[in-house]
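<backbone_tokenisation>
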Amino acid sequence: MLVFDGFPMVDSLAAETSEKIQAATAVTQAPLNQVLSECRSAFAWMAFLSLITNILSVVPTLYMMNMFDRVLSSRSGITMVSLVTLVTGVYLFWSALEWIRNRLMLRISLRIDWDMASRVFDAAFRKSAGGQRNNMHQTMGDLLLLRAFLTGRPILSVIDAPFALVYILVGGLIHPWLAAFALGATVMVALMALLNQRLATPAFRAANEASHEANRLANECLQHSETALAMGMLPAIRRRWYARHRWFLQNQINGSEASGVIGWSRQVITRLTPLLQMALGIYLAIEGHITGGMVIAATFLINRSVSPLKSLIQNWKEIVNARLALERLNRLLFEHESIVNRMRLPRPSGRLVVQNLCVQASGSKRKLLQNNHFSLERGQMLAVVGPNGAGKSSLLRTLLGLWVPVSGSVRLDGVEVSDWNPDELGPCSGDGPHVAVLCEATGAENIALLGEVDSDRVVTAAKQAGVHELILLLPAGYDTVLGDGGDRLSAGQAQRIAIARALYGEPSLVVMDEPNAKLDAAAETALMGLLEKLRSQAVTVVYSTHRPRLLALADIMLLLQEGQQTAVGPVRDLIAQRKDPRRERNGLTTVASAAGHPDTETEGGPAIREVRS
């Protein structure tokens, strides 16, 4: 285990954290299943009520049999009125039980929404922010699909299926041959259901996944709809989307065709069953074993014994989709719970240590970063430079804990960044993204991280970022609604507000991805003043840049080339090496070329000389 000087409690803290994570992981396996298991009593009541309602559903059959065998033969009006009154009361009781069962189903679905909706939202949000493929709309749709399953016919068909035995037993009371016939018909329909599961489920599963992929691609393309339309990319985007959509259609057709063949066989069986049963009943009546009323009653009993399994087959697609949704949500929540249940850690001071860092692209084996290592003391400033695609943004995302390295470590105050609870680390680490996205909220709410607005802190952060006057010029000042549903700001204005947002929590670590990329000269000067002020406040700052002007402010410079650091050290020392004729033999890259600027008088040259002097 690594031990860092100045942090004697790290080892014990890491061991305690590991034990708590293991305990939390044991508890949070299959989180949705855990919530469903807490509803066991409600499910037991649902099963009991289903048993009673299935028993009561025999009443119409018995009513018809007695009408034909007793009332019609005796011509007794009193008997008829008594039967009608009795059956009416049974129907009222039956309806009340079904109403109670429906209310139970609704309560279970609401319990899942109350307990899991916010957790599913957080988990889907964090997975999307971590660079992993995830369709948040589809994930929330999975929760709605599960709720719909728990309040509709599919779950009732699952619960009612075992009660087919009730009708078989009642048929046995009339005559054993009728029970045997009903049992045979039920077994045949059950075999159809199992065959349907074997043949149709894999195709429906593949169709479901293909549909998710097509929807995810469509959502990604919609984020760049303006650029796509302006550059005539719509036909190409449509072809890429339709390729995935066609795969979904093919699998859905395969599943429907397999289910259709089984459905045809089931229809043949269900249509022949009443005919054969009627023939059997008439034969038994001819032989004097049963009465005419029993023949009619037996016909209804046979239909009722097959009906639950018929309903099960008809709702099989919805059952499969609900099961897949449950599996996806459990996987997502299991990953999420292992993060949020971590032990609360003290606020970091800003010491950052990176060792042998290796980061891999999500869904690929390509390494974005490898073998990077450096350290920053509290209040130091690091400039990350390199050409496009060198891995600068990937490094910054990893420093914030958004991406998890495949090997190596990123430690803040001796604790692995990925071990922090993001809700606790977020306010302590400011993020200035390359592309600033503002939420549909007021300017004050955007700066206040969409939480409760502290006016003094909002104004302080805005003044530090040099955006206070800009916000006051908006129609309603700090109360102006920004984002897609409000005033549209320029890219530079949005970036400046994003920098103010990064400062709101008084962070000890600030990470900015090309913070001056969209700023004019005046705004860039204000940014340089902000960086100097953060240094005086002992705030650790890491930023990437292509402009040598910001390079002069940094204490340490990290040169990246194809994901690997080619040099790291004090800015003046690295720039001084440009004059060393041995730099080529040492494999050092010039500062200007590493930063993506040629060493010319118009771009890299004058700025480098200014730093060197």
